[in-house]
Amino acid sequence: MARSLRIEYPGAFYHVINRGNAGDAIFESGRDHERFLECLETAGERFDLCIHTYCLMTNHYHLLVETPRANLSQTVKWINVSYATYFNRKRRRQGHVFQKSYWGRILNINY
Question: Domain 12-107 class?
Answer without folding.
Answer: alpha beta
